[in-house]
Amino acid sequence: MTTHTFSPDPKYVNDTMALSEHDLRAAIQKRKKMFMIIGLKVAHKAIVYHKWDSKKGIGGKGGGPVGGTIELDIDADVTKNSFMKDKENIDHDFVFEYQLKACIPSDDLYKLHPAHER
Q: What is the spatial distance between Cα 106 and Cα 46, in angstroms, rounded to a whole number?
């Protein structure tokens, strides 16, 4: 696994916000908090295993005297089991993890704050 970290300077952060795509401009104009990627972990091939097991069902029990000395007991149980297990090979590099830092609006600029990392 390879780790890449980024430390964007304030000019880069503000230039990025100023040149942002049309979809983001409304959020920037409303001075919303934005996030910037500051780190990536890139995996070089992997084997992924999936396992899923589920059991669903209902059951009931009942009974009572039918008359005289005859008593009736009824039991019912319906169960459904589902199970899945598979394995997948990923034979290429892929982003396994990323780290974000909040770009907080301050005056007319955006600033990266270390307290707002995710």
A: 42
Neighbouring residues of 57: CB distance < 8 A, sequence distance ≥ 6: 77, 78, 79, 80
| pTM (two decimals) | 0.53
* Dihedral Cα 7, 104, 17, 10, nearest 10 deg: -40
- What local confidence, expressed as pLDDT, does residue 98 receive? 92
Residue whose tokens read 């009931």: 60
Q: What is the 3-state secondary structure (H, E, C) of the chain?
A: CEEEECCCCHHHHHHHHHCCCHHHHHHHHCCCCEEEEEEEEEEEEEEEEEEEEEEEEEEEEEEEEEECCEEEEEEEEEEEEEEEEEEEEEEEEEEEEEEEEEEEEECCEEEEEEEEEC
Report, in angstroms and rounded to the nearest whole number, the Rg of the chain calculated over CA atoms: 29
Give the pLDDT confidence score for residue 111 in this predicted structure. Answer: 72
Straight-line distance from the first to the last Cα atom of the chain, in angstroms, rounded to the nearest whole number: 20
